[in-house]
Every structure is written in C-alpha cells, then in structure tokens.
Amino acid sequence: MASRNGHGPHAPSEFPPPVDSVREFVKRGLDPEEELIDVGVAIVGGGTAGLACANRLLQLLGEDLELMEQLGEVPVAVIEKAKTCGGHNLSGAVMRPGPLQELFPDLSREQWRQERFAFGEVTKEAVYMLPSGKAKVRIPTPPPFKNHGNEIVSVSALARYQQRQAEEEGAYVLTETSAVQLIVEDGQVVGVRSGDKGRGRDGEPLSNFEPGTDIKAQVTVLAEGCWGHLTGAAIKEFDLAAQREPQVWELGVKEVWKVPKPLDRVIHTIGPWPLKVAARYGQIGGTWVYPMKDAQSGEDLVSIGFVVDLDYRDATTSAHDLLQLFKTHPLVRGILEGGERTGWGAKALPGGGYWSMPKLTMPGALLVGDAGGMVDTVSLKGVHHCIKSGILAAEAIYRSLKGERPLNAYEEAVEQSSIGQELYKVRNTRQPFSKGFIKGAPMVNLAIATKGRIPRGRLEWDPNDEQPMFVGDTYESYPKPDGKYTFDKLSSVYISGNATRDDAPNHIRIHRHVPREIAEAWVWMCPAGVYEIPEDVPPSGPVDVTVNYTNCVQCGAITAKGGRLTPPEGGDGPLYRVT
Q1: Could you give all domains of the chain from N- to C-terminal order, each with its CATH number?
Q2: Cis peptide, bond prior to residue 211, ω within 30 of zero
Q3: How much is the pLDDT for 6?
C-alpha cells in the first residue's frame, strides 16, 4: 500500500537519527587520577541482572577479604540512572524461581512475599485464542505457557530489594546517575563516564550544574537492559554482533489494577484479535493477565499487559491502545470491572533470542541480562535469565580478578547454563511469524513441539526499522478513553511517576523531517505521547515531527523503529513501584 505522500512506502532505516555511537559515546582514555572515581567493578544498571551480579560478587568477596581490600574503598559500584533501583524496570512477570533461590538461598518464598516483590505461586493457568472482540476459545496450554510452580513478581520491587541487600554487603549504589560514555584505553574498557547534571534545554549550564566524572574500574558490567546506550556503543566498538542475526524488539505496555474479587489463575491469550491477521500489517503479539496478592495489605491486584512485535508495517499500530482495546473483551471486563487502575508502564524487550545474542565479553567488560538479549519471548520469560547471568558474570569476574580464568570464560558459562540451553531450544521459533500469523503459526508450533529440532539451520531476521511502513486502519478500532476503564497516553504517563523537568536537555535523537508514514509510526508507537505531528501541516507529504521528550518513560522502542534513545539526566524518567 502506498503511503499518504504518494512516494512510499518508506522504511524508518532510510531516515537514521543523527548519532555516531562510537565517536560520541566512546571516550578515549581516562581523566587524570585526581579527577576520577576509582572503583573495583562498575556495574551500569540497577535492574535484576546488574544487582544479581553485585550481590553474588559481594558474597564471593565476603569470603576473600584480601581481594576485597585490593579492589579499594569501593569494591563494587552500581550506576543507576533512575531515582532508585527498579525505577525504570518493568516486566509481566511470572518468574522461574531457581536462580533467585540460588542467589539468596536463605530467603524463603514466603519471605519474598513479605518483602513485597513476589505475589504468589502459580497454581492454575488458562490460555485462550480470541477470534473476535467477544468470543474466546480455551485451548490446551502450550508447553512454553505452563507456569505451575513459578512466582508472580514485580521486577521494580525486586530490584529495590536487591539494592538493599547489595548496600548492606558494601556496594556503593549511585542512583540518579547516567552513564553516558564507555571509556576505552588501549583497546580495553577501563570504566564509564557519568553524565552532567544541571544543564538547560539548549545544553547551557544552570546554577546547579555538576559536571560528569570518569569512573575507573578493573571490570565494567553493562546491565542496561534492552539495548542500552553504552551497550550499543560497545557492540559497534568491539564488533560484538559479527556473525549474529540483528536484534529485533517487542514493546510491552502494562497496567496494574486493584480488583474487587481475586483472580485465581494466570491467563494468556494468543490472538488473532485484537491484531490484524493479514500479513501486510505485520502484526504479531499477545497478552497476559496475572493475579497478584499483596501479602501485607491483603489487596487483590491484577497485572495486565499487551506485547507487540516491533516488526509491524501499519504505522497506526499502538501497543498502548491495543491494550485498551483488549480490556473491552468480556473475558477481561469480568476480571477488571469495578476495579481501579493503580499503575502503568511500558518497556521494550529484545526478541531475537539465541541467534541475535551478541558476543558477551570484550576486553575489560561483559554484558548481562537483556543487554545480552537473554529473553525467551516464546514463553515470555527473561527475569530468571537476568538473575542467572548476573550470578555467572560475578563468578567469572571473581575468577578473572584472582587470575584463575580469563573474563571471556563467562561466555562458555552462559552457553552451558540454563540460559543457553533454554534459548537454544527456541532459536527458530519466532522467525516464521514474519510470514504472518496464519502462515507462520504451523511452523512455530512445529518448532515448539520438536524443541527446536525442526526447522533445522538458522532462520534469519530483518531489523525492525527496515520494514516499509504504510498508514493503515488499525487505529479505527481503538476505544475512546473514558478515564475510568480505558485511558489516554498522557494520563498514563502521569501515574508512572515521571518527573522529568521541563527544561532538561533533549535525550532523544530522530530525523525530524520525515515522510508522513514514518512520523505516524512514531506517534502511534510511543506509549507516552512523545512524538507529535503539528496540526497545521497538510495531510500528505513530509512533516516536521515535534518531540515532547519530557514525557518519555524510557521504554526504548524508538531505538528499534528508526531513532535513538540516549540517557536522560540522572533522576529523570518514570518511578515505577509495582511494575
């Protein structure tokens, strides 16, 4: 289908953002010793993976005081851009408990709930196919969706718990601190540089200006989540994605509801509704509805979300609005009706799986968790992989510092662990959906049934931003927000706790002058209303996109669909509590 400007369709990749990752985001050499912070191990990102690494490393150092002392006054530093660890973290999430039990063996699952990051063990589940906005067909639970014995968690609350544990063991946690440059000296990562604070809209220093600082480290851990700022620079600087498939992405939008009656099971739906079945739309996605019981307050909560692959071609595809549409289904109304929305958030996630994982180590640094693409999007699982990778990274770092094994032994440890084994089994499971839901589903089911034995070989991906876009009609089905049950984007951003100051510098890079279909794609895609098309522009032809960057909730989807998210000033962005 031609775009509205008559010259399409265009792909976002034709209009790259003004970014040179290596030149801008890699710093050559350290500042003088008297001007930097010297730490043992610097961990960039205070999410589940980074904090698992910090906690496991401190456990090992606690039994090796000589090495602890050699690492200096700050043996382990965690650098987190949000106001608190977990502030930018979001997931469904049903977690396999093993890695967390391995990390904290003395903490029972009942104590998890008392600490208010866990909300109950899965005892019942149901999977539905939704042929329309009113009908539902319950199907046998596919193996990837079997969750008996798993735990429903909040990753933002889990990160705050992990932060407390790490600080008690001696970690130095720098919150409200963005890491803006990877420092490379003689071909090795030697630390990171923190971002300036107190600059105005045009970059000018304000009265409260504080310059950034070089943070020197013997080992640097990139735990930034979904293709973070420094991770992207590291991948290019050290060619970590050579011989890999390009990474592809998904976008999830989540709400938390306080409900009048408890939900007794985990629910997933696999479409086709509310997405379009026709292959030309390129829409693939799914939903979840999870029960959450607050052990302290006794409140019955529900986590509900919609995830869409960012490979779609209809520019009017909107994960936020598809979630609102999903809530109009009788299945969901029966769960939420009479309740109150108490939380909202959005986050992109890596969807490429095994073939898209970059090389996980480089001289002086390594990748953990989502930064390394460790998500199984078939079973909607990644939290346990994040924790396990943090544990393995800490053990590899410890042995490297002891001179027992090289740092790159971490790669083999991941490959041989549950991470590598589980992701390998689903290595070719999502690619067939590029042919559309109807054509791709049989091959996907075969890949699941054979645990990856069929199809053989390595199925390829195309980057999300290479999909030609057209302005379609998906938006016509979105419900009008009523402010009580269905909601617009801006009211949702408000309850995310976003507190970005109005005069902060812009941290989003896009090509501002683009064809209409590209602009429409960004407007509809963004769950926070960051991108706008001015009202006074003609209905066809190229447009100048307005960027309301203070709305941004750091979801990262723009990086997959033609732009680039860079770190905001430390402390900006959402402050998630139970996402």
Answers
A1: 33-87+160-194+206-246+356-425 (3.50.50.60), 122-149+249-350+463-579 (3.30.9.90)
A2: no
A3: 42
